[in-house]
Amino acid sequence: MTSTTTGAILRAETLATDPEADAHAGAKAANLARLHAAGRRVPPFAVLSTDACARVLAPAADSIADLLAGLDPDDPATLRAVSTRIRALIEGLTLPADIAAELDAVVAELSTAATADVRFAVRSSVRGEDSATDSFAGQLDTVLNVAAAGLPAAIGAVLASAWSERALFYRARRGLDAMPIACAVVVQVLLDSAVSGVVFSCNPQTGDPSEAVVAAALGLGEGVVAGTVDCDTYFVDRGTRAITSRVVVDKHSRVTPSHDGAGTAVEDLGDPVRTAALSDAQILELAETAGELADRFGVPQDVEFAYTPDGRLHLLQARPVTVTGAGETIFDNVNVAESYPGLSSPLTFSVLRAAYEQVFRACHRDFGATARIVERNAADLYPYLVGTARGRIYYNISNWYRLFLEIPGMEFAIEGWEAALNIENRYRRPDAPAHGVARVRATALRLRVFAVILLGWLRLPRRLRAFFTELAAATADIDRRLNPDTLERERDAQALLAWTERFFTELVPAYSVQIFNDFLAQQMFHVVGLQLRRVGLAEDAALTLRNELFCGEDGVDSVDPVRSALALTARVRTDPALRALFEGPATAGEVWTALSEDRFADFRAACLRHIAEFGDRTVDELKLETDPLGEHPERLVPMLRNYLRGGQNADDMIAREQAIRRAAEQTASKLFAGKAVQRIAFRLTLRLAREHVKQRENMRLGRSRSFGLVKRVFREYGRRLHTAGLLDDPRDVFWLTYEEIAALTRGTAVDTDAARTVAIRKADHDRWRAQRLPSRIVTTGIAAAGIVDPTLEEPDDGAVAGARILRGIGCAPGRVEAPALVLRTPDPDVAIDGQVLVAATTDPGWVFLMVAAGGLVSERGSLLSHTAIIGRELGIPTVVGVPGITQLVASGDVLVLDGRAGTVTLGQEQP
Question: Residue 21 contacts by C-beta under 8 Å, 6 or more apart in sequence?
Answer without folding.
Answer: 5, 10, 14, 15, 33
